[in-house]
Design goal:
The protein folds into two domains: 177 residues, inorganic pyrophosphatase (n-terminal core), CATH 3.90.1640; 115 residues, DHHA2 domain (Diaminopimelate Epimerase, Chain A, domain 1, Roll). The chain contains ten helices and eleven strands. Helices cover 40% and strands 19% of the residues. It is α/β, with parallel strands linked by helices and 307 residues long. A hairpin with a 2-residue loop joins strand 10 and strand 11.
Length: 307
């Protein structure tokens, strides 16, 4: 068994998955015994890129693991996969505003608000003067494209620089983002519920529990038009099962950089009606500004702190 495992939240997206795999590779290049392990079924875009490029899948869960852990694209001890404890975590690499690194007593942390955690891992390779393998470079490049919606307005200059470097060394095609986005937009049948639950989180904010789900797809308006009731039912069940004070689904449309927010209860609707840039029609909010879940959650944090 490795001395260190690298991992992320259960059922990861491409950013979390790519960081786990690539950072284990970097640690090995630096002389450490490290290996990536993933809990839960990776999201559709991860499954697609692994199959498309015939990449080896990261190893699965370890039962009763008691060794050292590095977590990437996450910094909430309540989201640790399996039976991993906060005391086991020795390093955190994350890129979101709301973090809980103070609850990891033995960890150093790098929390910087770039578009993707994959950017931070790529910069680690660059700083160490180590070139990632073609496979890790491809995964990290895909992670940046996914998290920044193909280097849209959410991307920082650091994301763009690392994406350019990774694209060149991995030999990725110019249409990789479009292919990934099309793959994860196929939500026929029970794939919709699986995807919603696969990218669901309960985030503690100002002593309240916020249940969130997110989709990043092509054709958001058409999906909502045809399957709104189903989405709201999945959200309601999730909120009730997790004792959430508020709950919402954020759907990011990858074609036009807009967002649709869905609620099912009046308390959440009341809380979010003042979020800037969102036009509400019943329980549906339409936005061309706050289109990412982390942006909306950060606004809720400020709203609750000042209420």
């Amino acid at each position: 068994m490795s001395d260190i495992i690298t991992t992320t939240y259960e059922g990861p997206d491409l950013d979390g998955y790519s960081c786990s795999v690539a950072y284990a590779e970097l640690l090995r290049a630096l002389g450490k015994d490290a290996k990536a392990h993933i809990w839960g079924e990776p999201q559709l875009e991860v499954q697609w890129i692994l199959k498309k490029f015939d990449l080896e899948q990261a190893q699965g869960p370890i039962e009763n693991y008691e060794g050292l852990v590095v977590i990437l694209d996450m910094s909430d001890p309540d989201g640790l996969p399996g039976n991993i404890k906060a005391e086991q975590v020795i390093e955190i690499i994350d890129h979101r505003k709301i973090t809980f690194e103070d609850r990891f007593p033995n960890a150093t942390s790098q929390i910087e608000q770039v578009g993707a955690a994959a950017t931070l891992v790529a910069e680690r390779f660059r700083s160490a003067n180590i070139q990632p393998s073609k496979e890790s470079g491809l995964l990290l490049y895909g992670g940046i494209l996914s998290n920044t919606q193909n280097l849209s307005s959410t991307a920082t200059e650091r994301d763009r620089q690392m994406a350019e470097w990774l694209k060149e060394l991995s030999g990725a095609s110019d249409n990789l983002a479009q292919e990934m986005f099309a793959a994860k937009s196929d939500l026929a049948g029970d794939e919709l519920q699986k995807t919603l639950l696969g990218d669901s989180k309960v985030i503690p904010v100002q002593n309240k529990m916020i249940g969130t789900m997110q989709l990043e797809i092509i054709g958001a308006k058409e999906l909502v038009k045809n399957r709104l009731q189903e989405i709201q039912q999945v959200l309601e069940n999730f909120g009730q099962e997790n004792d959430c004070d508020y709950a919402f689904v954020n759907i990011k449309d990858l074609e036009n950089d807009s967002g649709i927010i869905i609620t099912f209860d009046q308390e959440t609707l009341k809380l979010m009606q003042d979020v800037p840039g969102i036009e509400w029609h019943g329980n549906l909010g339409f936005s061309s500004q706050l289109t990412l879940r982390k942006q909306i959650t950060a606004w809720i944090d400020e709203r609750l702190a000042n209420s």
